[in-house]
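stuck on this one:
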Amino acid sequence: MHQLVLEIYATAGQDVRRRIRQSSASAVSLDPSELDS
């Protein structure tokens, strides 16, 4: 049960970070390579 919850959180976390990275890139227009580090 815990494993499933952790997987859901991990997937959701990746999606959230992806959205933040996209919104930050469009808002600040940073170089995408800077956001990965």
